[in-house]
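pasting for the record
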Amino acid sequence: MLGTLVDTPVMEVSDLRMRYGDREVLSGVEFSAAPGEVVVLLGPNGAGKTTTIEILEGFRMRSGGDVRVLGVDPAEGGEAWRARLGVVLQSWRDHSKWRVRELLEHLGSYYEAYSTPDKKRPWVIGELLEVVGLAGSASTVIGRLSGGQRRRLDVAIGIVGRPDLLFLDEPTVGFDPEARRDFHDLIHRMTDVDSTTVLLTTHDLDEAEKLADRILILARGRIVACGSADALSRQVAAESEVRWTLDGRRFVHSGVDATEFVRELFQQHGEAIGDLEVRRASLEETYMRLVREVEG
């Protein structure tokens, strides 16, 4: 029974369709996500990312298809279901007169009724402030926070209820490199410790590559590619590029079987080979090529 529960998808999307008048925004979108998985949704502006997430969150009615989130149709999700979700939007602009701890305690109180033996809700506020890097600002009026601190608070608001499923929309916009690294550590902690599933949208492809267990590329209203960053690059790039130096000269070779080429290279030249590098297409190159193929 335990194995069955663990294997039950957190999200199941089949033939998802959305139409606005004569314009079809989503056309047969299909994917699933497992407990503890980080799924990154990539796509150009207008591809349907926001519409897809709003349907999954229960904020928008779909035109067709079957959607299950935490075992429930989002169109019918009640308060107990919603308490299991976390949402981090690009920015919150209210609550400026509250103090940081007061706001989190207030919002957290709404989750107490939905605590379970397996997961106590809300997050202990002192601990939450520590993990998002706001412990030193607990008594600060929100309107006086810096932009980076405010973004950390956005994240804290989204996870205060210790969600089973977390939706993140461009979560690290406005973060400095240290804050971004801390945020990535937090996501890994939530997925590893609490088996939180994460659906993330971002335009930062480096971030996508660091966080994603699986990447979905949405273009023209449908999923055009799905897999890890490495799997997608293999799918797109038939050839790899091998670079090396020999006798002070630099060489470059492109071929399908880089492993075999490198083996033959060392058999022929041995330790005279230097600065060897095997390079596949980056996620950015892969993404751009896939989108261009679809959009023409």
